[in-house]
Write a structure and sequence with these properties.
The protein has helices spanning about 1-10, 15-20, 30-35, 50-55, 55-65, 70-75, 85-100. The chain has about 110 residues and is mainly alpha-helical.
Length: about 110
């Protein structure tokens, strides 16, 4: 069984990531860009009533701009790290906010 798996794994060839790294898909950049930016034409009708689905209003609203394709150049940008003073202010404000809501109050915790 393991030998059959190893044989099938070798026959499969390299992964798509490895093929891309080797430059197998070079020369098709504009096709890949067009496919990535192609808008999803199937409306998402999840959560809409039967009447709204029949009218197509909700589907058109969802397809109009709620989804966008993943762009690693924009979506994977990291923001500037927080400075030490900003972090201490954040912690200080969090402690003040949490003490009001989640404080113990006047209830006794020990009955001994």
């Amino acid at each position: 069984e393991q030998e059959a798996f190893e044989k099938a794994f070798k026959e499969r060839g390299p992964s798509l990531l490895q093929a891309k790294m080797d430059g197998k898909f070079a020369g098709h950049e504009e096709d890949m860009e067009r496919a990535r930016k192609k808008k999803n034409t199937i409306p998402d009708l999840w959560g809409t009533s039967a009447k709204e689905q029949a009218n197509g209003v909700a589907g058109a609203a969802v397809a109009a701009g709620s989804r966008k394709s993943f762009d690693p150049e924009k979506d994977m940008q990291s923001s500037k790290p927080m400075s030490g003073t900003d972090f201490s202010k954040l912690v200080e404000n969090s402690v003040v906010g949490l003490n009001g809501r989640f404080s113990r109050g006047g209830i006794a915790a020990s009955f001994l």
